[in-house]
Every structure is written in structure tokens, then in C-alpha cells.
Amino acid sequence: MRKTSMTLATLAASALLLSACGGNNNNNASSSSSAAPASSSAAPTAEASGSASAAPADDLTQKKVTISIYYPTPDLVEKRALEDDKIKRFNEVYPNVTIVKSDWQYNPNEIGMKMGAGEAPTLFNTYATEGKFLAEKGWAADITDLFNAYQYKDQMNPILQDQFILGDKVYGIAQQGYVTGTVVNKKLLDGKGVAVPAYDWTWDDMLKTAQAVADPGKGIAGIAPMGKGNEAGWNWTNFLFEAGGEIQNVADGKVTSAFNSDAGVKAMEFYNKLAWEAKAIPKDWALGWGDAVGAFAQGRTAMVIAGPDGPVDQALNQGGMKPEDVLVYPMPAAEAGGKHTGVLGGDFLVINPNATKDEQAIAFQYAVFDYFSDKGLASVEENIQARKKDNKYFIPPVIQYFKDDSEYGQKVKAVYAKYDNVYQYNADSQALLDGKPEAQYNTQDYYATMTNVIQEVFSKKGTDIKGQLDVAAKTMQSKFYDAIKVE
């Protein structure tokens, strides 16, 4: 993954169409049930698929191949419908391919066992932090040749795709991405007579707004920072970045902990203020991604931090909220004039290296089957229409797999503009986004370690913040970083 921070004002066009993790869509943390199919179509001929792509060296339509694919969870009904439609259309082009739906969702703690037991799908989903980890473990196929032969490779969005290009090797296919932001329930603010802050807001603005809108007696929090699971560490890392801090330093062949810096202390002290000074977080603060986003959709917290598309989707389509009451903000700057830095994350597809060459080639074709394709775009439009019929909203990803200024990007924008049930992100807010990629090494381990510190701060008033950060940094160093040799 690239360590450079990149301002996303250039994404304004597609960002107007708007959005983790996973560590779940934490990068993952939040994967939207409304996202356009990030799957695809490099079929053998333009006539067959509606989009042209490089033809394989030999005819893959004549080989009997079985592949297993990532399949959305049962709660993602619309995404399952889109995937089923894609499978049907794929088999019209590749009738020789048997597709098995895998119910396994990527978990960094399970991938080793799945690979060792030969149970990992041929094509599985993962998130932005995992590129280097999977490549170094040998758990992601080198798809460089397949990618280089792909006709549309130069139109893939480099902000996403480059995170799975290590050296000159390609190990994954971008689906969609996000810059972590803050989603605000304007209706709750209005009900308490609290002014809506400017999009160019600061930590002080967030603190004051959260404190003013919190109503503990009614079980309403001003903000619900995630407090359990790796997503707790992921949430807090946004504030570390905004304070000018880093997760780790990589130099002279070594990786060293860097988050126990003055910036780290400043960011954790802000969490301490939210909990003990403003008393703005939920009484039961041990919330994972689903808990925090669910609380937002149910009107039990005025703010939640996540890849925005997930909370927006749940608020509109499950919580019954109106688009004008769901505002997507960038992360607040530490101080006035500072950057609104948020963790840059995304969803990717990875091919199993233990699959045969034919299986890998077919898996790649499946992964990009609807990419840059008129049929793929038609499928998205049908989904928007179906949602409109059901009085539901379509929530686009914050960042798409394609370049927003590409010909295809303009086609997508035109489709979105036709419908009033497509959520539109505020241009002023999106122009402030500053996306920073996650650390190169052991990011999920770091998130888990930081979750322990956050839980100490939220549960014990007067916690020694610097001491806790130093212990966490020492743990990361001895358990993980010392074993890394950077070439």
C-alpha cells in the first residue's frame, strides 16, 4: 500500500455520488449493502458481454472449470440479488463454468487456516490493509499477467488499485473504496436546537456538538465511537492521522511503533474528553461496527464514524430517515485550517494462489465481468429502479473502481442523475476529504492492540494515556515489528 496521503478533491465528481472496512469496512469496516456491483466482465467478446476485453490466450469457454466465489451475507438482500443476476449472465457467456457460492467472509484470523485446509474460495473479498500481508504469506495469487492483459487496466482508479500493487506485482482487484468520515443525524441536532456545524469543522466543533445533543436520560449519545473489535482502533486512527501522527515508521530495514507520539497522546486525550468531559458517548460504549451504525440508524446517537455509505444506507433504508436529515461530513480537523484526514480504505477481490491457472483466469474474468460494461451499468440501473419501487434509496460507493473522469465514469454519473432515490453527497464536504492509506505492516494487529487502550480510556477516568500508549507500542514492537525485515 502506498503511504502517501492524497487529497480527494479530485474525486469530487464521483464523490458527489458517494460511498471502510474494513477492518470490517473498517476498511472494511463498513461495506454498503447498496454498493454497485463491484464485480465484473471481461468476457471473450464485446458482443457476448457488452464490453470488450482482452481475450485469454486459449478459449476459456471450452474448459470445464469450477470456481467458488465470495457471496454476500444473508442480510444483504439487494447485493445477493445483484450477484445472482451476475452469475446468471456470466454463465450465459461461460456455460462451462460451475460457480459455487461461498458463505465465508474474509477474516485475518481465519485466512491461514482456510488456506492450509484448502477451504479458501477461488475468489474472495478482502480489504485495503491486507495486500502486503496476503502477498507475503503467499495467500494472494500474483495476477500481474492477467491484469496487464486486461483492456481496461489503465482506467482503473489508481487511488484504490495501487494499494494492491506491490513493487511491480498485482495481487488484487479494486471494487470500491471510501475515506472515513462522520455521518450526522441533523434531525437530532434540530430537535435539541443545536446548530449544524460547518463542513470545515474541527475537533472542538465535534466535541461541542456531541456534548450539546447528548441526552443520556433518553439514551441518546452525541457520538458513538466504536469501542470493541478491531474497528475501535480503526475509528481512533483517524484522529491520530489528523493530529499529524503515524502508526509506524519504516526505515533502515526496520519497522518501529510510532503511534505513542505526542500526536497519539493528543488524539487519545480527545477521546478522553468525549467520554469524561462531554459525557457524549453511549453509556454502553462497547460497540462494534454494526452496533454503532445500528444505533445511528435508530436515532440513538447523533454521530457515527465510518465509511459513509454503510451508515447512510442503514439510516435511510432501515431507519426510515430522510436524505436531508443524514449529512456526510469529512473527519474534523484537529485545529482550524488543518486537514480533514480520514483512513482511506476499500474492498478488494483476491484470487486463491492454490487454484489452477484456468481457475485463476476464470476467477479474474468473473471479478471484472461487469466492469466498464453496459450490461453491468444496466444492472445497476435496474437495482436503482427496484429500490425506487420499494421506496428505498440507492447509496453509491464514495470511491468507485474506475476513474471518475473516465468515459464510463460519466455514464455512471448520468444514470445516477436520473433518479431522485440516489443519495447525493455534498460537494463542499467531499472536496475537503483527505485520504490516508493504512499502515503497511500488521494493521489489524495494531487495531486490536489500540482497542485495548481505548477500552481503558472509556472505562477508567484518569487513565494514564501516555503509559497505555507506550505499553501498546512495546507490544506491537515485540510481537510483530521486530520480526519484520524490510528489503
Automatic annotation (TrEMBL):
Signal peptide, first to last residue: 1-22
Stretches for region Disordered: 27-57
Keywords annotated in UniProt: Signal
SUPFAM superfamilies associated with the record: Periplasmic binding protein-like II
Name of the featured protein: ABC transporter substrate-binding protein
